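Worked Example 4.2. Consider the chain below.
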Amino acid sequence: MPGEIENHISSLGITLPKAAAPAANYVPYVQTGNQLFISGQIPMGPNGIEHQGKLGDDYSLENGQAAAKLCAINLLAQAKAALGDLDRIVRLVKIVGFVNSTPDFTDQPKVINGASDFLVEALGEKGRHARAAVGVSGLPFGVAVEIDAIFEVA
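Applying the procedure from the previous section yields the following structure tokens:
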């Protein structure tokens, strides 16, 4: 039975997907003590990988923000798989967003706002977090964004 956080996410018109399986030799999450570390999530949608492109070249800021939001949705899907109930989240501690971008593109923070804004909307005050937004020359499968996260959990 869905908890309060999952019901709120549903009221936003979002259904959490099934957590994606790892694409290489790693685990999707690790819990140690009261911390949950979620491996980098890419913009995987119901029909596979979405949002392939390079910001500052062939991909717009708005598309990058949509990619970041989808990554954030997938972070919550992994947290649900790990915890069984998103209501166990005490707070989102930090996210690190990687943006596939050209050397002269400098709006990585604006791209990762797509994830940050959604996570605050979904989790309320528990969703306010520290973060980094980093430009990189490439990401797996040519995706525009990848994001990982650390949660404090009960």
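Residues 5 and 87 are 6 Å apart (CA to CA). The mean pLDDT is 97. Compare this with Example 4.1 before moving on.
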